[in-house]
Specification:
- By secondary structure, this protein is α/β, with parallel strands linked by helices.
- The strands form two sheets. A five-stranded mixed sheet has the order 2-1-3-9-4. The chain has a four-stranded mixed sheet with strand order 6-7-5-8.
- Helix 10 packs antiparallel against helix 11.
- Strand 1, helix 3 and strand 2 form a beta-alpha-beta unit.
- It starts with a helix and ends with a helix.
- Helix content is 38%, strand content 16%.
- The longest helix is centred in the C-terminal third of the chain and has 18 residues.
- The chain has eleven helices and nine strands.
- About 6% of the residues have low confidence.
Amino acid sequence: MKWIRTFLCVGMILFLAMTPSKLAARAQESFVDPRFVRDTDRYTGSILLYHIVRQKPYAGSLTLWLKKRAEAYEKKHKGTYIEIEGMDEATFFERLESGRTPDAYSFFSGTLYRDRLREIDHLNMPYRDGLFQTEVCVPYCYTGYCRLLKTPDADGGKRYYMNDVLAARDAAEEDEASEEKADVLTLDLRRAADLIRYKDGFSLASIEPIDRFTDAVCWMGIDRNTDDAKADAILDFIAFLLTPDSQQTLNALGLLSVRADVKNAPPDASLKRVFKTYETVETVDPFLWQSNYDALCADAKLSRTGDAEAHLRFTNRFRECKE
């Protein structure tokens, strides 16, 4: 039996001599399954985003669309929660006055001052002709304007304009026709849809395009006081909204995608010509529009009374907002 003990001792000595390097190497390895390791560079926590309702889609709710997109994003990014709060402009400005600011904003051209937002990285997106990213915000959808014709031969009849800016663009002077009595109405797509859906006398009206212009572009930007980690997560959410899959779902609301490689499909046949016209866009700088809007409205109102100088000022200011 002595030879067995001798053999075992020699075997143990050889084993101990050969294994220290392997044991040391293994000691440096993690004993945690990598499938369950959280990416510590990704932000986890809550993000508050205000959607400020200055314009509405042809049908449905953009606020609800954002909430559904946020839910889809959260499923792919566990631990990140995006709270969407929709509100009108009056409520939004009340909150600003009381110091209640969000982490990010969804807003239409003309709502925000540029200095409310922090600079963001440029997203490499194939934007539709006429659309662009600024240094502080990204466009993610848009709607527009139309003419509502009560009858096929309505062009020679009485006209109605939703606001003075739309009228001044047409060089239209004061018109006595009300919304109900007009034969041709110039207004946004949501109001046109509501008249056809809910008002007697408009059920057979047709929606016609005007031109490629719209100020109803919806943008997204990050509050100037949002920290870097949260800002990176918000920018990632914006990129998610700009994916082809997300952009295609906008059409169900009668909204148009900002991507040139996404084919817009109107939710009903009445919008085909409008969607065709808006395949390329003529729009304004969102912040020039904000700073000039009150003056534009004032000159537009005077223009409708026949004031030629006011109309010239309006035309020049309007052109500047698009440059």
